[in-house]
What does this fold into?
Amino acid sequence: MADVDDLVDGIAAGRRAAVSRAITLVESSRPEHRAEARHLLARLTAPGEPTVRVGISGLPGVGKSTFIEALGGRLTAAGHRVGVLAVDPSSSRTGGSVLGDKTRMPDLAVDQHAFIRPSPSAGTLGGVARATSQAMLVLEAASYDVVLVETVGVGQSEITVAGMVDTFLFLTLARTGDQLQGIKRGILEIADVIAVNKADGEHEAEARVAARELAGALRMVHGKAAWAPPVVTCSGLTGAGVDEVWGEVLAHRDRLGVAGLADRRAHQQLDFAWALVRDELEQRLRRSAPVRAVREQVREQVLRGELPAVEAADRILAAYDEA
Ligand code: GDP
It folds into this structure.
């Protein structure tokens, strides 16, 4: 595996081409590539200090890429090496809004101390999450000490991202009624830091009011005695408050402490292992020839009301076990 040896050396030296090729390898779902990826990951040197892994989520248009551009630039100017990854199983490279798109972060894209990788466009959420978490290990071995994982604030993907980062930052807006929807969707329960974005110009005062209301609502959700995530305001566009948001992210990490962080990451690994197993089982179920053979018949009988759901499930499972 001379190729893998080259990649390991290139990554250790922080060479961008090697990092890029390694990420392409871990994104591949071909069995031979997966074996090679495992071999590669086993040989990478983990950083001495745990990196800072931060998830950044929010609805489309909330200003994620503008914010990451502002934050990333500040971090590289302060001497950090910043990796930006994205989790968006619905993304398509031909579509308009691709997460982690370099054209949406023009300055960071040409910053020598930053590495931006758009979301893999194909595959299930589980597959994308596998690729992203392995890409994170590649970046960390290449001495990127801050990894930002961008995701859209809809659906299941932010839960997945929360499971692979140390701190989960949720961006929201003042005027959309978004904060209440957020509570409903449970996003606010996984958020460690919340920022009301676009707090600039005529909307600044409004954003501050929204942040105060949201902080109040969160104290209700979390209960009086419990800790509630901080709510701050910022503007990715002007850069105002971006340092404060980062300060809250680091404060959250400090609160976890060394042992707390290690424990969080260990539990994430266990949860992730099971998530990957469930994903793989679903793929196998979909591909199973005996299941395919009974699928149509079961479908028709259930739709005609001739077969109860419970029996239908038993028949599908029996077909699967035959394989
Ligand atoms: P994303 O879809 O969440 O990545 O959002 P973008 O970063 O692409 O921003 C969506 C739109 O909001 C763009 O037109 C931005 O110029 C604008 N925008 C982003 N951040 C800010 C901000 O802090 N203040 C204001 N006023 N506009 C912003």
